[in-house]
């Protein structure tokens, strides 16, 4: 009696391995590329062709990164690949900044390994890269937001420390004006200038606080209330 679990070989479909490989390579969205010992493209998938802006993968064959990217990225990629060819050591999960001739930037994580022939000799490299531009932009936005928060907090603290001396100056100048002292006209003008300058500083600091969205207690009160701020 035959086993109920015996496979039905008549239903096994024989598929060419190269067909399976091409299907996999051209279906996944990651960028896959093979290069010769001089870092020239010898095979790329459709996703890589789209990235490079060519109509079909074959249009990139025989070309290098220098034909598509800005020199900054092309040189870095070339140096990495030549180091892999020389040492046999792969590059695993590296973040790469891709610079383009028009100035825009994309980011990828890249793994590159030596490409060997049947004799085990290194004849080039092959790699796979995944676009992480959206992730990097999100990280940058978070960092910018955090930096802005820290800057604004520092800005508010600076306003606070600058406001306190101005308050003292304004208060004392007002008290001097109200005191029963026989100041000459020149001295009174100096006192008025000090009070006016301190008041102007207070207004500037308040505007800075408004821009900063930082709402501390006003450090400089109006001239009518200045005598209540400072106690001699």
Give, in order, the helices and strands: HEEHHEEEHH
Radius of gyration, in Å, reads 36 Å
Total DSSP helices? 5
As for the CATH topology of the largest domain, it is: Beta-Lactamase
CATH superfamily of the largest domain: PAS domain
The CATH class of the largest domain = Alpha Beta
Per DSSP E runs of 2 or more residues, the count of β-strands stands at 5
Summarize the structure.
The protein has helices spanning 17-27, 46-52, 71-87, 133-178, 185-212; strands at residues 31-36, 41-44, 91-99, 105-116, 122-131. The protein is of the alpha+beta class and 232 residues long.
Task: Walk me through this protein's architecture.
It is a single chain. This protein is an alpha+beta fold and 232 residues long. The chain has 2 domains: 14-131, 2-Layer Sandwich (Beta-Lactamase); 138-228. Helices cover 47% and strands 18% of the residues. The protein is built from 5 helices and 5 strands, in the order αββααβββαα. It has helices at 17-27, 46-52, 71-87, 133-178, 185-212, and strands at residues 31-36, 41-44, 91-99, 105-116, 122-131. Strands 2-1-5-4-3 form a 5-stranded antiparallel beta sheet. Strand 3 and strand 4 (105-116) form a beta hairpin. The longest helix has 46 residues, at 133-178. The radius of gyration is 36 Å and the shape is rod-shaped.
List keywords for this structure.
232 residues, alpha+beta, Beta-Lactamase, 2 domains, 5-stranded antiparallel sheet, 5 helices, 47% helix, 18% strand
